[in-house]
Write a structure and sequence with these properties.
This protein has a nine-stranded mixed beta sheet with strand order 3-2-4-7-1-8-11-10-9. The chain has a two-stranded antiparallel ribbon with strand order 5-6. It contains 15 helices and eleven strands. A hairpin with a 2-residue loop joins strand 5 and strand 6. By secondary structure, it is of the alpha/beta class. The protein has a single domain, classed as Peroxisomal Thiolase, Chain A, domain 1.
């Protein structure tokens, strides 16, 4: 897989509460932006051989009766007759769709393909959607919401590693402040306003220790990337990205059967496999777009992705290492926390941020000299993780 697949186009819409646009409108807009970013042009009808559509809980998301890949043709009729696979894998839906598309190229099945991620989160029925998620737990499912699942980990981790509650509260607030700050520089972010540490630390409680600004918003959005064989990349652009490594890992869904509540083993395993495929180590990553559905999730990601030792995630935010200009900037786009989390589009949107960063097109949020970027999603109650590693240097 290493170096066999190139990204030659990427585009997305501004994430947000997009009530004035349909699921299909979002796909068309993101696709147009993607095509505009293919420097030497592309004819979708003639050159795209297959496509993947990432969308989660699709029927509720886009008002169609049967969730299938055929929905993509409703938005992009120029792709009719090609195979379209619909991908759903919790919050890792988009990044897993990307992974599957990349494998099809590496296997020699296709030359050039498209990956689309789209979601209308603001038009789901939240009670029904969250009840469906929580009902998967065999026990203890009364009153569970997404924040509750992650709060269990946050409290276990705080009990084991933090010196006191005040220290951890400050660290979580600093992550929220950082990502809101980064979001002000990203034209695609749902939230484009600054917050203070005091605001984050005193906001209404959601599920202890998470307060309002510890939680990502419900967001609509779409993002698209175009992949091709590495040998074909220069046909489309003089500045392609190359896929170095990709991996997916899953853990048991039922929390009482977990080996640990202080590490997401799915992330640990996916990162280890992706690094091995890429032939690099965590220290070689220049920046990362990681899953921060809650501020604590980002702190845990620092550790599980190998950016620091277990228990040292708080130090990275305290010492500014994950800020713009730090040793390893994390969530330069604003992350899920500020950019938003339209499930099917989230992973593809993170890959789009890698596209901008590795092509030196990220403006005020640009990481100087970036050569290797990482994209990570953690789905379900920390049960599935996907990691993709990209570079602007041909392997």
């Amino acid at each position: 897989m290493r170096g066999k697949v190139a990204v030659v186009g990427a585009g997305l819409v501004k994430f947000g509460e997009l009530f004035d646009k349909s699921f299909f409108d979002l796909i068309v807009e993101a696709t147009n932006h993607c095509v505009e970013n293919v420097d030497k042009g592309i004819d979708l009808e003639k050159e795209i051989e297959a496509a993947w559509l990432g969308t989660c809980d699709g029927a509720a998301s886009c008002q169609r009766d049967v969730p299938s890949g055929a929905a993509l043709i409703s938005a992009l009729p120029q792709l009719k007759d090609i195979p379209v696979s619909r991908n759903e894998n919790a919050c890792a839906t988009g990044s897993d769709a990307f992974r599957n598309a990349a494998m099809s190229i590496a296997a020699g099945v296709y030359e050039t393909v498209m990956v689309v991620g789209a979601e209308k989160m603001r038009e789901k029925h939240p009670e029904g959607f969250l009840r469906f998620v929580a009902a998967r737990e065999q026990v203890y499912n009364r009153g569970l919401i997404a924040a509750s699942y992650f709060a269990m980990y946050a409290n276990a981790h705080m009990h084991k590693y933090a010196r006191n509650e005040e220290e951890r509260r400050s660290q979580l607030s600093k992550i929220a402040v950082k990502n809101h700050h980064n979001g002000t520089f990203c034209p695609f972010s749902h939230f484009s306003f600054e917050i203070t540490e005091e605001q984050a630390s005193t906001a209404p409680m959601v599920s202890y220790p998470f307060r309002l600004f510890d939680c990502c918003p419900q967001t609509d959005g779409a993002a698209v990337v175009i992949l091709t064989r590495a040998e074909n990349a220069l046909k489309y652009t003089d500045a392609p990205l190359y896929l170095l490594g990709t991996a997916l890992s899953t853990d048991t869904y039922w929390l009482p059967n977990r080996r640990s509540l202080t590490s997401a083993h799915a992330t640990v395993n996916a990162a280890r496999a992706a690094y091995k495929m890429a032939r690099i180590e965590a220290k070689d990553i220049d920046f990362a777009e990681v899953h921060d559905c809650f501020t604590f999730t980002e702190l845990l990601d620092y550790e599980d992705l190998g950016f620091c030792n277990p228990g040292d995630g708080g130090k990275l935010i305290d010492e500014g290492e994950v800020e713009l200009g730090g040793r390893i900037p994390v969530n330069t786009s604003g992350g899920l926390k500020a950019k938003g989390h339209p499930i099917g589009a989230t992973g593809i949107g993170q890959i789009c941020e890698n596209w901008f960063q590795l092509r030196n097109e990220a403006g005020k949020r640009q990481v100087d000299g970036a050569e290797i970027g990482l994209q990570h999603n953690l789905g379900g109650p920390l049960a599935v993780a996907c990691v993709n590693i990209l570079t602007n240097k041909k392997p």
